[in-house]
Specification:
membrane; transmembrane; transmembrane helix; single chain; mainly alpha; 179 residues
C-alpha cells in the first residue's frame, strides 16, 4: 500500500490506520492458528497491503493519481495484474489457499478489469460492482481458503475492482448537513 501523492493528512491517517489494522488482524489470526513466524509475517504484509489499499485507492488523492486526465482506460490493468496475492498464497501456503480458488479469483479479477476497461464509461461502475459481487459469491462455493486467509479474496476484490478501478471524486467537507 502506497499513499498517493498529494494525500491529505486525513487520507494518510486513514490509509495507514487501515493498513495497520489489517496487519494486526492478519497476524492475530495467524498467531491464533499457531503458525510459523514466517507465515505470520507473510499474512501481516498481505493484510497491511489489502486493508490499506482498499482505503488509499478510494481517496480523492488516489483517484487523482489513477484517474487523472492523462491516464488511459487501460492504466489500471497493470496495477491489477501485479496483485498476484491469491497465487502467491497458494504457492506459499498450499494447505491454506486452494489453487483452484486462487486461480479463479485472480483470473476473474483480471477478466473483470478487461470488461471494465472496454465498457462505456457509464457502465464501468455497475460492471465493477457486478463482477465484485460474483467473485465474492464464487469464493463461498469454491474450495474455501482456511480461516487464516479467508478474508484476502473478498477484500482484494473490493480493493482492485471497486476501490482502484473506479474514480472517487473529491467531495469537499461541508459545515452544513443536507438531505
Amino acid at each position: 500500500m502506497l499513499i498517493s501523492p498529494g494525500a491529505t493528512p486525513g487520507e494518510r491517517l486513514l490509509g495507514y490506520s487501515a493498513g495497520l489494522f489489517g496487519a494486526a488482524f492478519a497476524a492475530a489470526l495467524a498467531t491464533r492458528a499457531d503458525t510459523a513466524l514466517w507465515v505470520i509475517a507473510v499474512v501481516a504484509i498481505v493484510g497491511f497491503d489489502v486493508f490499506g489499499g482498499v482505503v488509499v485507492n478510494a481517496t480523492p488523492s488516489g483517484s487523482r493519481r489513477f484517474h487523472g486526465a492523462k491516464t488511459s482506460r487501460w492504466s489500471g490493468f497493470g496495477f491489477v495484474a501485479m496483485h498476484v496475492h491469491p497465487l502467491a498464497l497458494a504457492l506459499l501456503l498450499p494447505e491454506e489457499m486452494p489453487w483452484a480458488t486462487a486461480i479463479v479469483v485472480y483470473a476473474g479479477v483480471v477478466l473483470a478489469t478487461v470488461l471494465i476497461s472496454v465498457a462505456p464509461k457509464f457502465l464501468r461502475q455497475p460492471i465493477a460492482f457486478a463482477a465484485a459481487a460474483i467473485l465474492i459469491a464464487l469464493t463461498t462455493v469454491m474450495p474455501p481458503p482456511a480461516a487464516l486467509i479467508a478474508w484476502v479474496l473478498p477484500l482484494l476484490t473490493v480493493k482492485l475492482l471497486l476501490s482502484h478501478l473506479l474514480p472517487h471524486p473529491a467531495i469537499e467537507p461541508s459545515h452544513h448537513c443536507s438531505s
